[in-house]
Amino acid sequence: MDSRQLSYFRSVVDHRSFTHAAAALDMTQPSLSLSIRKLEKELDVQLLTRGRAGVSTTEAGDYLYTIAIKMETLMTEADQRIREIAGGLAGSISINATPEFNWAFMPELLSRMFEVAPDVKLFLEDPEPIITLERVLDGSIDLGLMPSIDPRAFAQQHQDQLVVHVVTEFPMLLAVPERLKDLPDEVSLADIAHETWILPKHHDEFPGLPDLLRTAWFQNPESKPAHIQEVSTLQTAMPLVAGGIGVALLPDSAQRHAGDHVFFKKIKGDFPSMQPILIYRKDKDLSPAANQLVDIILEVGAEGKYH
Description:
It is a single chain. This protein folds into three domains: 3-86, Arc Repressor Mutant, subunit A (Orthogonal Bundle), CATH 1.10.10; 92-168 and 275-303, D-Maltodextrin-Binding Protein, domain 2 (3-Layer(aba) Sandwich); 172-267, D-Maltodextrin-Binding Protein, domain 2 (3-Layer(aba) Sandwich). The protein starts with a helix and ends with a helix. It is α/β, with parallel strands linked by helices. Helix 9 links the parallel strand 9 and strand 10 (227-231). The chain has eleven helices and 13 strands. The strands form four sheets. It has a five-stranded mixed β-sheet with strand order 4-3-5-13-6, sandwiched between helices. A four-stranded mixed β-sheet has the order 8-12-7-11, with helices on one face. It has helices at residues 3-15, 18-25, 29-43, 59-86, 99-104, 106-116, 129-137, 151-157, 209-219, 234-242, 288-303, and strands at residues 48-51, 54-57, 92-97, 121-125, 143-146, 162-166, 172-177, 186-187, 196-200, 227-231, 248-251, 262-267, 277-281. Belongs to the LysR transcriptional regulatory family. InterPro entries: LysR_HTH_N (IPR000847), LysR_subst-bd (IPR005119), WH-like_DNA-bd_sf (IPR036388), WH_DNA-bd_sf (IPR036390).
C-alpha cells in the first residue's frame, strides 16, 4: 500500500463513484478499478461495495478512509514545512553569544527574526568566548558572537576554517563601585592603578580585553594595577564591581543592566573599542534560516540598534 493507492481510494469514496473519481483523477475508470482491486488483494479484505446508491465502504474501508485523510493531511503539512525550511521560515538555529552581545543586540535580533520567521527555533547560550570558538570549530553550533579587539588578526589566524564578520563597535567604559562614584567623569588608567582589576581570562586563540589592557599597562607602567582578578565572562564582573571588589572595563551597552551600585567613567585618551564578531565555519552550509539570521545580525549591527 502506498500514498498513491490511498489517494485513489479516498477519491472513490468521496465521489461515491469510480467513474466520477476517475474523471477527477484524470485517469481511465478501468485503471482506477484495477488499482483498488490490487489494494484489496494486497490487504486481503474488501474495502468497497457497489450498490444502486453508488459506492460505499465496508468496516475495513471506513478505517482505511480515516487513515487516507490523515496521510493526506500529513503530506500537505510536510510539503508546507519543507517549503518553509527551504525559505528560511522554519527549522532551528544554534547560536552562542557572549553576555555583552546579549545585553546590546539580542532583544532586537530576536524581535526581527520572530517577526519574519516565527516558527524558527533559536537555541541560545552564553558561554565564555573560548567555548563559543571551540563549538563553532567542531561544528556543534551554527553561529558564534564573540568580542574582539583585533578582528583582522583573528580572521587571519582562522582564515582556512572560519567566516568572520565584524558586526559593530562598542565603546569601552570603566565600571567602578559606588565608593568610587565621585571620580571625575574621565579617568586615566593611572588614577585607578591601586584598584583590583576584574578581567576575563586571557586565551591564546584570540586577543581580548586582557591583551588590550596589558598593552596599555606596558606602555604606561605607572598605570599597571597591583591586583588582577580573573573571571570567565564580563557578565561575571558586574556583580563583583557592584560589591566593591574592584573595577572592570565594560562595553557601554552594560550601563542599561548595571543596577544602582555600578557607575561608569570614560577613560582618558584614545582608548580602543571592542568589536564584536560573528563567526561560522566556511565548510558548513548554513540553513536558509541561519543565513537569514546572519543578515539580520549584520543589519542590526550596522544600524547600531543597541543604543
